[in-house]
Each structure stands twice: as C-alpha cells, then as structure tokens.
Amino acid sequence: MKNQDLGTTELISIILYPISLLTLYLARLQFQANHAPVITITSNKLRQSNQMDESRFNITVKNLGNGVCIDSFLLLKEKDVNNRTQYYMSKPEREIQPDTAIEFTITKEESFEHDVQYMLVYMDFFGHKYLASNVHRGRKSYDYKHLERLTQPSKQLFFLHPIYLKFLWWRHKAIKQQNTYRYHHLAKIKATREQLKGLDLYFEPEDKTKK
Predict the structure, then answer these.
(1) Angle at 110 between CA 84 and CA 50, to 5 degrees
(2) Cβ neighbours of 181 (radius 10 Å)
(3) Distance between CA atoms of residues 77 and 174, nearest Å
(4) Which of 6, 67, 103, 208 gives 37 a disulfide partner, CB atoms 3.0 to 4.6 angstroms apart?
(5) Is the pLDDT of residue 170 over 90?
(6) For residue 2, which phi and psi values (nearest 5 degrees)?
(7) Facing residues of 198 across strands?
(8) Measured in Å, how far apart are the chain's first and last C-alpha atoms?
(9) Percentage of the residues of the chain whose pLDDT score is greater than 90
(10) How far apart are CA 161 and CA 129, in angstroms?
(11) Gap between the Cα atoms of 106 and 87, Å rounded
(12) Closest to 126 measured CA to CA, from 1, 37, 10, 18
C-alpha cells in the first residue's frame, strides 16, 4: 500500500509540475502586460532639404501601454547616391510616460534616398528590450499600404534575437560613421565657433558706477 501511495503521489506531482509552470508563465505575461510600455509608431514624415534647411526624417510614436519607457532609439539605414550604405541614430528619448506622444528626428545636409529602412528599439523598467514595429520601408505613407494591413505589434527582443543583433550592428555602424545626434550636435558647435573666429567682436564692459 505504501509503494502504491508513493507512486500515486509521484504521478500527481508530475502532472502538477507543468501546470505550475504554465500558471507561472501566464502570471508573468499578465504582469508584463500591466506594467510594460507599448510604443507604437503612429506616423512618419520625410522632408527633403533645400538651400536653407536640412533633410529631416521624423517618426511620431505614442506609448499605449501602462508602463514607462525608460530608453529608446531610432535607427535608420539608407543607400546614398554612390550606393554606399549609411546608418543614422537619433537622439535618445527617455522616460516616455503612458499616453504620451514623442517625435524622433534624424537630420542630414543631403537629401535622403528613397531606399530607406528604420527601426525603433526601446527598453522598459525591467531591462527588457522591444522593437516598436517591424523594419519598414521609409516613406511608407506614400504607397498607402498601411491602409491595407494591421499595425505590427511590438516584439520583445532577446539577446540572440536576429533583430536585436541587427540593432546592435546598425548602432555600431552609425557611431563608427559619426552619424549620430552627438556627433551632429558637436559639429554644429564647432562650425559656430569657426564662424565666430572670423568676426571682430567687441563687448563694452559694463559701467557699474551707473545705476
């Protein structure tokens, strides 16, 4: 009887083990759904440069989830007129609150080519990384295909996920090619300083005796 009772107990334990794992998995999904940000791309715009301005590639996103988006980057890939692949990375946007819209911008002096792809990767409070939507062709609003398909859902990216590896490669190339917001900002400061060097500026000291 004791051996029979022990066998029954073991059998019940084996049956309950996968049920416990499934319950834990569903609880984790529920917790993530209640606390994770959901960044959705609502629109993109491409404005080509003229003599007085720069080309701008803008992405508007909105956090439709319940959690705060801690960090996010927009990356862009294009082939220039010389058929060379160029990579760009936007200024990071941090702490995107729920129900908040944010605009990402990538600028350059030359016009963007038609063959443009982009991705938006963001991170939640727990360090999980997501793809806001799949990698799209740029200027998708011109072909009206977005009116014929459902919006792409966010994807969680694991360490060896192919899209996450692609994100790391795009970011590495953008930094190496100095096509980031940081380098762009420093270049503007340097250009401004060079312009000021050529000006004969004189500032009259303030007369503190006058009131």
Answers:
(1) 155
(2) 19
(3) 9
(4) 67
(5) yes
(6) -65, -40
(7) none
(8) 106
(9) 20
(10) 11
(11) 11
(12) 37
Residue by residue, DSSP assigns the chain as -HHHHHHHHHHHHHHHHHHHHHHHHHHHHHHHHHHS--EEEEEEEEE---TTS-EEEEEEEEE-SSS-EEEEEEEEEEE-TTS-EEEEEPPPEEEE-TT-EEEEEEEESSPPPS-EEEEEEEE-TTS-EEESS--EETTGGGTTGGGSSPPPPPEEE-TT-HHHHHHHHHHHHHHHTT-BHHHHHHHHHHHHHHHHHTS----PPP-TT--
C-alpha distances in angstroms, 154 versus 82, 131, 171? Answer: 34, 5, 20
For 95-116, what is the mean pLDDT?
83
The total number of residues shown for the chain amounts to 211
Q: Cβ of 151: how many Cβ atoms within 10 Å? A: 10
Structure tokens at 57: 């590639």
What whole-number distance in Å separates Cα of residue 76 and Cα of residue 181?
12
The label of the residue with tokens 């049956």 reads 15
User: Which residues sit opposite 105 in a β-bridge?
Assistant: 58
Amino acid at 191: A
Give per-residue pLDDT as tens, 142-160: 555 656 666 677 888 888 8
Tokens for 118, please give them.
Answer: 């982009």
In this predicted model, what pLDDT tens digit does every residue of 108-128 receive, in sequence order? 877 776 678 888 999 998 888
